[in-house]
Structures are given as structure tokens and as C-alpha cells.
Amino acid sequence: MGPTPRRARRWRWASLLGATALAVTAGGALACPAGAAGTNVDFATHCIPPAVAGIPPIDGTTTANVSVDNTTPKVGDTVTVTYTVVTAAASNPTDLALPADIMTPTGKVTLGGAQTGGVTVAGPKKNPPVPGKAAFPSFSMTGTFTVTKAGRITLSPGDYNIHTSYILELDTPCTVISPPAPASQTITATDGTPANTRAISLSSASGDAGAGVTVSGSHFTPGATVTLAGRAGDTQTADTATVTANAQGSFSGSLVVNDRTTTGIVAYEGGSWNADKGAGPAAYVVNDTTPVPDGSQKLTTTVKAGTLSMSQAGDSVALSAVDFGQGGASTGSLNTVTVKDFRGGPAGWSLTGKVTDFTGPGAKIDAGALSWTPDCATKAGSPSTCQAGSAGTVGTSGATLASTPNGTLTGGEFTVGAGLSLDVPAFTPPGAYSAVLTLTLT
Q1: Cα(433)–Cα(316) distance, rounded to whole angstroms?
Q2: In this predicted model, what pLDDT tens digit does every residue of 33-64 receive, in sequence order?
Q3: Whose CA is closest to 121, among 151, 98, 145?
Q4: pTM above 0.70, yes or no
Q5: CATH number corresponding to 41-287
Q6: Residues 238, 241, 247, 250: is their CA dihedral positive or negative?
Q7: Is the previous residue joined to 281 through a cis bond, with omega within 30 degrees of 0?
Q8: Any signal peptide, and if so, which residues (predicted)?
Q9: CB atoms within 10 A of CB 86
Q10: Half-sphere exposure in the Cβ direction for 307 (13 Å, CA)
């Protein structure tokens, strides 16, 4: 049904920095999706199998968690949410084995505390084969919301739906019996100066072509005309509608979605999409119900999401030697780091580094004496563009080496490097000095 639950794991690459040498070793070897993992929670769930299964509703227990890409956002920031159903309350209701990649999950995450509301999430059409009567596999769904209030915000898993496209188009909706479910994730938002606090939510995260979805919005300009529109990646579709925001800046309107390539829905003020005067996209999936004509065969394929990973060229770097009594800059270059982002989602990534003090023969050189000048190149054709971090001190608190921003569709391959300079005090005792530099990709 979906990928293995996304956990917040870090790549750590330790580097042994010396006045004459810099050795790099792997402190971890896990590819990681960006984000902070939530706590697994259990909640009672009421699932309704498809009518063709001929079985009654199922009251069971769902185990799920919610992760986010930022646990300390500012008001106005967009937070990416991943809702992972670890164990679904429902199972394959028939004796018929289901093939791979025919399930599309959708759902909602409930916000509580300083900010209330819901986040619409949707997952890819991706699953392993499911034997007849077997439990549904784990799956993940993603969506975004804009932080509108400072304070502690809780995120709880909510209702979800399992749509299968095999022989028949069938849905298995599962609702939380006693909402809200226990909180799986908590973020702490701080005050900011938001350029845009507009937000939207959908009555459903999926539907057949030609069906209407209710779009509700808040924090728009009172009395403004708001356009509701479908999006296919970065492109607006022909499916649009208009509503008028009330005196409180809220609205509720219906958008009929016909375009089968739709991946999300937006709402905006003005004649065309403007991120400063709009909200979304909220994830939305159009069910493929196109009948296969007689004598024809329907062909499908799946683009599988990959991982966020990094590798580096070599495991040692020699920094230049300096003279006792003179000191000065001991320089070199960080081994080239290659970052590959093949997740295919909306989240960008950040590569940071921090270093310990340099220790030597009865003395040390402070970590704050190491500085770097980052550089970053993007491979042609990559959806994202790499941004090098600022030149300056690395230190024990750390600094950004490179990053890519969040976007509608992110990913690509990137080459990252940095010039290194260690400011050695003039009368530092002779000998070899070393420290540990850790690079973390999130």
C-alpha cells in the first residue's frame, strides 16, 4: 500500500581533522527521508469493507504515527506532514489476491492545541502483493499545512481510506471511533512575521473524475473573490471555480475535478496563482475509472519513490602544515559529497556539519578556529537547485554546508564541497592535532 514507515534517520560522516591530515569514516549507512518521526499510537477504528465483499463493518485497532519535516517552525512556515499507517484495522476483504501497486491511500491528520483543523494527506499508488484475506501492508501519506499560531501544536492520525484499482474500483474507508486519536507528534511554533497565513482543507482527498470536492478556506481577505483550481504538479489544470470570502476571510465552495492528472488543489486571490495570496496545494487524487474497451488492454506503470542519500569521495584529507611560532591557516578541501534525492516529494534537504575541538600533544585548538567556504553544483535536469551554505565558522554548534528548498516537486543529484581553513595559534605545541567533523543530511 505504501512505503515502509518513514523514520527520521540521519547520515553521519565522521571526519578526523588534523593539523596535517583529515580522515573521514562513515558513522552511519542509512538512507533517510527528511523529518522528525512521531510516536506510534493505537486507536479504535471503524472500517467499512466494499459492498461486494459481503461482510459487515470491521471495528479494530489501527497503529499509526505522524512525522513532520520541522518540529520548530515559525508562524507562516509550511510544514510537511507524513501520516504512516503501521498496522491497518482492515485487511483484504476477499479471497482474491491483490497484485502490487493497485492501492492508493488518502487520509487526514488532526491538528490540536495552539492551532486546530485538519491536514489532507495522500499516498502513492504503491504496495506489495496482498494475499487473499491477508492484512493490508503499511503505507504512508503526505500533505502540508501553514502554521498560523505560535505555541504547542499536536498532530493526531485521523480517518483514512484505502482505494484499490483492480478489476473494480473499491474503497475501504476507516474512521476514528472516538476522535481525535492520541497525539503522535508535537511541534512548537514561534512567533514570526508571516507573509501569508491563508489555509485550505478538503472534504475528501480523492474522488472519481467529474466528482466535486468541497474546499474550505480561512485567513483570506474579507470579501475577496477566491479562485479554486486543480494542479497537476506545477501546472494549473482547466478545473476552476470561484467563491467569495466572508467578513471573517473564510469560505466554503465546491470544485468539480475532471482532470485525471490532478495532484492537488489550490485557492488564491487575484487573476492567477500567487503563493503570497494563495493556499495549498492540498493533496488530491483522481481515481482512474476509465473502462477498457472491448478488444483492448489497459497498460499501467508505476514510478517508485526512492530515498535521500549521500556518499563521499575518499576518506582522508591532508590539511597543510604550519610552523611553530608563526601559526596561521592550515588549509585543505573537504572530500566531495554527492547527495541524491530520489524521494519525489515536496520536501527539500539540508546538509549540515559540526566539529569538535582539535586535540594534540597536551594542548588543543578550539573548534571555532575551523572555517569553511561551501560550494554546491546541481546535475542538469534536477527539479531542485542546490544552494551552498554561507562561508564562516563551523564550530561545535554547526553550520549549513548546502541545502535545497521545499517545493511542489523536489529531487535530483548534487555535488557538494568546501574549502577548509584551520586558524592555528602561533605558539601551538608541535605535533599532530585531530578533531571529529560530523556531516548530517536531513
Answers
A1: 14
A2: 335 678 999 999 999 988 877 888 989 999 99
A3: 145
A4: no
A5: 2.60.40.230
A6: negative
A7: yes
A8: 1-31
A9: 18
A10: 17
